[in-house]
Structures are given as C-alpha cells and as structure tokens.
C-alpha cells in the first residue's frame, strides 16, 4: 500500500516523521487562559475557568473528568466547534481563538478530524461517501480524494465494504468508517469523544488499537473519555475538574510512540 | 490489526514540523467562484441521495407542487385556447365584414323598436355604399321541429337570408350549392343544412337532394355547411338550417317589411373605418334620424367582436388565475412544512456536516437545492398531469386547450419561485443550527 496522495501542493517532506513529544519548537496545540461561560437569563455559569496546556505533535492524550467537569466543553473548543470566552488558542500555528463562523468551519475542516461516540454516519450514504464527506467542504480534486478515501477504508480494514450503507455495518465497522472519515483531510489533530462508548469490549480494543496505530504514524490524538481502558492507551492524561486542570502527567501507557518507524 | 509504517499521511500535513510558525490569522474564510460552484455541485449530488432516502416526503412535496402546476397548466392552456378561439371567431366573422343589428344594443331607449332595418335599407346600401359587395339581410327563428322519416330533431336556429349566404359568412359548403337569387325570388323550399341537424336527420348519409319536413312543410336540402365546432351561448353554430328569407317570412307568417340583421361585406379591409362611417351615415339618413338622435341600429365589426371576447377572456384569466395562485400557495406551504419537518428530523446530519466543516452556506445551498429539485420535478409532473386533465376536460367539451412552450416555461418559473420562497426559511433554519446542539439532539 502506498502513501495516499493527499494534495499535490503538499508533497514536500513526506518522508520525515516527527518524533512524538520531542519538544518540537511549536506545539500543535497551545491553550492559554481559556475560559468559557454560558449565560442563561441572569445566570452565568463558568464551565472552563482558565485552562492552559500544550500538546506536542504526535502525542496521544486522554482528557478525563466526571460529567459536568467541563471536559466536553474543552473538547468542543479544541475541535473548533465552540469558541472560548477568553484566552488564546493556537492550533498548528494558526490563532483560532476568535474566528467567525465560516472561518471556524473551514479551520475545523482542514485542521481537525472528529470521531464521535455515536459514530454519526449519514444513513443513506455508502461507507465511501461517508468517508468523503469532509472532502465535500475542502475544495480539493474529487478523484484524488476518492482515491485517498478508498486507501483509508483499506487501512481500517473495510476495503471490501466500501459500498455498504451504515445499517449493513456493525458498530465497530461504523466507527472504523468514522475514523477513516476523520483522516480524509489529513488533519493535524484527531479528536475523539468517547469513541468506544457504544462498543463491546472486544470491538473497543480493536478500535483503540486502530487509534494507537494512527498515533504511531505521527498523528496527534486527543481522546475524551471516562473509560479507564481507553485512558490507559494514552501516554499522557489530563484530568479536568470543575473547569480547571486537576492533573496532567505522563504514565507508562501502551502507546509506543514512533516504535514502528 | 497493524498498519504498515510506510503508510503514513502524517508527515505530509503541509506544514513541516519543527519549523517555527508564528500564529497566523486570516487564512480561513473567503472563497473564489469556481470553488463555490464545485461545492454546489457536490452538495447537489449528495442532496439527491438524501431525496431518495426520504422518498415518501419527496413524493408528497412533488405531488403538492404538481397539483399546483397542473392547475396552472390547465389555466394557461385554457386561456390560450380561449384566445385562439376568439381569434377564430373573429376570423369567421371576417375582418372585411360588418354585421348591422336593428336597435341600439349599447344605448337602448325604453320601448325603442329593434326591428328597424328594411328591405329598402338593404337595396340602398347595395346601390350606393362604395366597396360593399355583399349585402345580406337576415331573420331567424328558434327551436323548429325537423323531421325526416322517423327522425325528429328540434333545430335551435332557422335563419332566413338571401343569396350567397355561405360566401357572406366565409363558411364553406361541403357539398351542394349556396342559396341563389332565384330561390329568394320564388320563395323556394330549399335549405342549407348545418352539420348538426344533417347528422341528426340523415346520419352519415349525404343530405343533399333529400327532403325533410320543417313544421310540416317539405324542404329540399341543396347544400351542406362545413362543420365548425364552435359554440357560443350554449348552442353550437352547426345547429342551424338556412333558408331563403322570403320563404321564412311566408311559411312562419312573419313581418315582411323588416329583418333583424344585415351582413355587409366589403371589397377591402384597409378602409374598414371609412366603410363603417359611410354605412352609419347612410343608415342614419335612410332612417331620417336627427343629429341629436342616437343610432337605431348597431354596427358590429370583427374588432368589436374581438374586444367583446377579450373581456370574457379577462374574466376567465382572473378566475382561473386566482385558483392557480391558491393551488401554488397551498403547494408551497406543504413544501415549507415538510421541509421544516425534514430539518428537525435531520438535525444530526446537519450537525455532523457542520462539525466536519460545512459552512452555513453549504447547508443552505444543500436544502435549497433539495427544495428546487423537488419543485422542478413537481413542475414536470404538473405539466404532464395538467396536459392529461386538459385532455379530459377537452373531451368533455368544457374547454379548448392550447399547450405551448410558454406553458412549460411558466410552470418552471412558478416552481422555481415556490421552491426558493418556501424552501428558504427551512434552509436558513438548517444553516443556522449550532453543531453542538444539533448533535446533542441526536443522542
């Protein structure tokens, strides 16, 4: 299998592999003093109360916290689905703290890949068309994208099911399609929200293996979870509580960063 | 499962790692036109599969719009048919002819006589009106019993006239001959027969040379008038028998001095206005009217016939137009409601697309495309349905239709308007959905 051609303009330096957490001069994610408050009537609730951390290229990070801790809001901000009330967010060298709606859509499309707990595949579209969905909004050559989508489906082990609609796929297979979709635009950051929350333990392990593989090829992965199994796969864990970071540390996780190189 | 290490999209991620990028802004947002067109096209193809996925709803929208368009089609075709018929009637009336009635139709004085035209008028016009080459007096009687062998038929009109009736009315004879001066002089019992009574009395056989009874008096058919298939005021023009005026007044004991109407045909159409004025002055002179007296006759020209018909047509346009507008608006509301339902039901899909980077305008475009596709399908279906309905109405003899490219273009325009106007609100609502909220709604 060869490297999928992603964009003719992006061919340079394809052989180089960044060493994960190698203290690259520019972290992929840089959050400083992020707050987010929601106002409902007279009531203002501050969900994030000053969150700052960086994520280097190639890291595998788990964000943990109980419900209501603010981890979902943090994920939405990381994934550019939401903007912080205050603070600065630099993603892949771009200041994305306060983009307008359309610019945020475009940045989301180019820089992030999202994997959801409920897969969220379009029921009437085939696996291939579902993978191609982010390409719909990225204005690149359709033939190149189609080739890449096919390669990605092969990579996640669904090369023989490209024409299946989601209803004909198992939960694990649907999540694989979602993963391939997240990779289509070759984003710098893969975000996952409880990616194994709807799967049995065997399937969960397969999906987590896949995340690990993707991380091993150099992609930065951030997973929000309260599942210990999932968190154990990440090398770094950030625990959030009441809108602030409670702990942030490395541990001897299963991730063998760059081991396959 | 493992993934070969060489198989990496990672490092290709554009910005080479290790390089120090300062934060940049303004890279996102802003689009050129080809990109937008491409986006539109691909959104449209995906939209099509959505329409297929929601077949039932698509069907209802198409059906609703189709009904509106069908009524619009019938209406436009019927109005066109009415126009064509008006032209035909005016044509039949003849642009080179006038019809003079006794009495003033427009300004009728109380108790004024309607029988004012005399044989003398006819003779004087024939003698002294320049350009007039046929002057044809007419009287008529309604509902006369005809009989041939065992067939009885009540003909709605028996017209009494003089020679050259067919020529004066541009009405070709299928068989036989026109009335002659001799027939009129002798008070001959001869008749020209319209298509309707001919069929009723003689079936498919030729009536020419055959004899029938009219109020018990035997008449011989000398000519068969061509089928015209026009109706006016509830009776067909083909439902008539034409006999010499002299015969009519004798057999039915009618006044012999006056007749009801006078057909005058001129040699040229160019000077019609002058001809009509000349005729008016001559008649006023013959009737010894003082300058302040109103005309005691009415001159009808092809132009006035057309004017009269277009007033009727205007009423038709108004009535049917209101009906069509109502049908389209109902169709539009059905569309709007089904689409609002669709937006609610497809929140997750919309939220997902936005989460994957779809800008609001892409969602707006997608829903507008969907609505337009459906209404345009409705337009095509509606024209077909309308043509079918028109055929049925025509077969029932209710209206005459003319289908043209204009009908189709109008249907397309109306459907586009409905699609845009009623599709816009749901589409905007979809475009404005917050992805976080929309996805949360799906859990």
General description of the model:
The complex is a heterodimer of chains A (261) and B (443). Chain A is of the alpha/beta class and 261 residues long. Chain A is built from seven helices and ten strands. Chain A has helices at residues 71-78, 101-111, 127-132, 142-155, 171-183, 201-216, 228-233; strands at 29-40, 43-55, 60-64, 86-91, 94-95, 112-115, 189-193, 220-224, 236-241, 244-250. A six-stranded mixed beta sheet of chain A has the order 6-7-8-3-9-10, with helices on both faces. A four-stranded antiparallel beta sheet of chain A has the order 2-1-4-5, covered by helices on one side. In chain A, strand 7, helix 6 and strand 8 (220-224) form a beta-alpha-beta unit. In chain A, helix 4 (142-155) packs across helix 5 and helix 5 (171-183) packs parallel to helix 6. Chain A is globular and about 50 Å long. By secondary structure, chain B is of the alpha+beta class. Chain B is 53% helix and 18% strand. Chain B has 13 helices and 14 strands. In chain B, the strands form three sheets. A six-stranded mixed barrel of chain B has the order 3-4-11-6-8-7. In chain B, a hairpin with a 2-residue loop joins strand 9 and strand 10 (235-236). In chain B, helix 1 (33-53) packs across helix 11 (360-395), helix 9 packs parallel to helix 12 (405-431) and helix 11 packs antiparallel against helix 12 (405-431). Chains A and B meet through strand 5, helix 2, helix 4 and helix 6 of A and helix 1, helix 10, helix 11 and helix 13 of B.
């Amino acid at each position: 299998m060869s490297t999928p051609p992603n964009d003719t303009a992006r061919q340079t330096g394809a052989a180089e592999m960044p060493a994960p957490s190698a203290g690259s001069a520019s972290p992929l994610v840089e959050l400083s003093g992020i707050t987010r408050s929601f106002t409902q009537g007279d009531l203002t609730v501050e969900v994030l109360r000053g969150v700052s951390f960086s994520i280097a290229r190639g890291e595998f990070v788990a964000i943990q916290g109980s419900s209501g801790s603010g981890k979902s809001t943090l994920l939405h901000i990381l994934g550019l689905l939401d903007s912080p009330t205050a603070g600065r967010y630099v993603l892949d060298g771009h200041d994305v703290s306060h983009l307008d709606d359309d610019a945020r859509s475009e940045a989301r499309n180019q820089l992030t890949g999202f994997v959801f707990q409920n897969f969220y595949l379009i029921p009437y579209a085939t696996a291939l068309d579902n993978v191609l969905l982010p390409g719909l909004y990225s204005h690149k050559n359709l033939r190149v994208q189609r080739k890449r989508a096919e390669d990605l489906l092969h990579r996640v082990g669904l090369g023989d099911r490209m024409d299946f609609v989601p209803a004909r796929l198992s939960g694990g297979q649907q999540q694989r399609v979602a993963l391939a979709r997240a990779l289509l635009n070759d984003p710098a950051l893969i975000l996952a929200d409880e990616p194994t929350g709807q799967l049995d333990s065997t399937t969960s392990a397969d999906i987590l293996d896949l995340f690990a593989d993707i991380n091993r090829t150099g992609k930065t992965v951030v997973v929000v979870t309260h599942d210990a199994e999932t968190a154990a796969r990440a090398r770094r864990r950030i625990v959030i509580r009441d809108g602030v970071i409670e702990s942030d540390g490395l541990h001897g996780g299963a991730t063998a960063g760059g081991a396959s190189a | 499962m493992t993934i070969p290490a060489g198989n990496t999209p990672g490092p290709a991620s554009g910005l080479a790692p290790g390089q120090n990028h300062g934060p940049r802004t303004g890279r996102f947002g802003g689009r050129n036109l080809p990109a937008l067109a491409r986006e539109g096209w691909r959104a449209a193809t995906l939209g099509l599969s959505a329409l297929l996925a929601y077949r039932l709803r698509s069907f209802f929208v198409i059906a609703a719009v189709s009904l509106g368009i069908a009524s619009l089609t019938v209406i436009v075709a019927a109005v066109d048919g009415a126009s064509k018929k008006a032209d035909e009637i005016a044509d039949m009336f003849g642009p080179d002819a006038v019809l003079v009635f006794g009495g003033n139709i427009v300004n009728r004085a109380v108790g004024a006589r309607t029988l004012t035209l005399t044989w003398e008028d006819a003779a004087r016009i024939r003698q002294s009106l320049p350009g007039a080459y046929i002057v044809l007096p007419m009287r008529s009687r309604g509902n006369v019993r005809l009989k041939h062998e065992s067939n009885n038929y009540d003909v709605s009109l028996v017209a009494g006239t003089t020679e050259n009736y067919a020529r004066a009315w541009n009405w070709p004879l299928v068989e036989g001959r026109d009335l002659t001066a001799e027939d009129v002089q002798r008070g001959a019992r001869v008749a020209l027969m319209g298509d309707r009574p001919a069929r009723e009395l003689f079936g498919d056989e030729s009536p020419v040379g055959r004899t029938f009874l009219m109020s018990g008096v035997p008449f011989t058919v000398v000519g068969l008038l061509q089928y015209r298939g026009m109706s006016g005021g509830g009776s067909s023009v083909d439902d008539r028998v034409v006999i010499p005026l002299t015969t009519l007044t004798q057999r039915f004991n009618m006044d012999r001095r006056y007749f009801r109407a006078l057909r005058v045909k001129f040699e040229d159409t160019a000077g019609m206005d002058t001809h009509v004025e000349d005729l008016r002055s001559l008649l006023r002179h013959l009737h010894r009217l003082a300058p302040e007296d109103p005309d005691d006759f009415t001159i009808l020209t092809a132009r006035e016939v057309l004017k009269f018909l277009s007033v009727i047509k205007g009423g038709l346009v108004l009535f049917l137009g209101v009906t069509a507008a109502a049908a389209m608006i109902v169709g539009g509301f059905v569309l709007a409601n089904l689409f609002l339902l669709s937006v609610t039901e497809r929140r997750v899909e919309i939220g997902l697309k936005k989460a994957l980077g779809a800008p609001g305008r892409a969602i707006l475009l997608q829903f507008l495309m969907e609505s337009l596709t459906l209404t345009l399908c409705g337009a095509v279906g509606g024209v077909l349905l309308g043509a079918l309905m028109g055929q049925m109405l025509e077969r029932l003899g209710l209206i005459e239709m003319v289908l043209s490219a204009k009908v189709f273009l109008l249907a397309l325009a109306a459907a586009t308007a409905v699609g845009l106007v009623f599709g816009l609100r749901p589409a905007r609502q979809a475009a404005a959905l917050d992805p976080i909220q929309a996805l949360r709604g799906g859990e």
